[in-house]
Specification:
The protein is an alpha+beta fold. 61% of the residues lie in helices and 15% in strands. The protein has one domain. A 4-stranded mixed beta sheet has the order 1-3-4-2. Strand 3 and strand 4 form a beta hairpin.
Length: 142
């Protein structure tokens, strides 16, 4: 009888230990889930902030200064993130990275001499929803 009582006490102790362990595993899983959701929200916020830098120029007339600003934003991003670079396609308007890179000449040519108006479109987003490719073209109205 004494052995049976000790066996029941041992079984009860093991059962309590398993219950405590199960509760610990459950809490850790719940904590990991909350952490993952929080990280996803932060990533979404960062994507929205990044995209907003470009989306404010979408589907409206923009100036040569805006073009230089967009170009500088892409250069700054690409220097810090070469694996996730943002590309600009310039259309058939004679624009290019090298033309815009020389800000003073570009601004003189397209503001003072021609008073050009431009149009910016987003061509491509990556799988996380970040802007990856823009197109900028001259959009002079008749």
């Amino acid at each position: 009888m004494e052995n049976a009582a000790k066996a029941l006490i041992m079984a009860g102790g093991i059962l309590i230990g398993l219950i405590v362990f199960a509760m610990f595993v459950y809490e850790m899983t719940a904590f990991a889930s909350h952490s993952r959701i929080y990280e996803e929200r932060i990533a979404q916020q960062q994507t929205m902030e990044f995209n907003s830098q470009f989306e404010k120029y979408l589907n409206q007339d923009i100036t040569a200064q805006d073009v230089v600003t967009i170009y500088n934003l892409t250069v700054q991003w690409n220097e810090g993130h070469p694996e996730d670079d943002v590309k600009i396609s310039w259309g058939s308007s004679g624009l290019s990275d090298s033309a815009v890179e020389n800000n003073e000449t570009f601004l003189t040519d397209h503001v003072i001499n021609k008073q050009d108006i431009f149009l910016c479109k987003i061509n491509k987003y990556d799988k996380w929803g970040r802007v990856r490719e823009l197109s900028i073209s001259i959009n002079n109205h008749p």
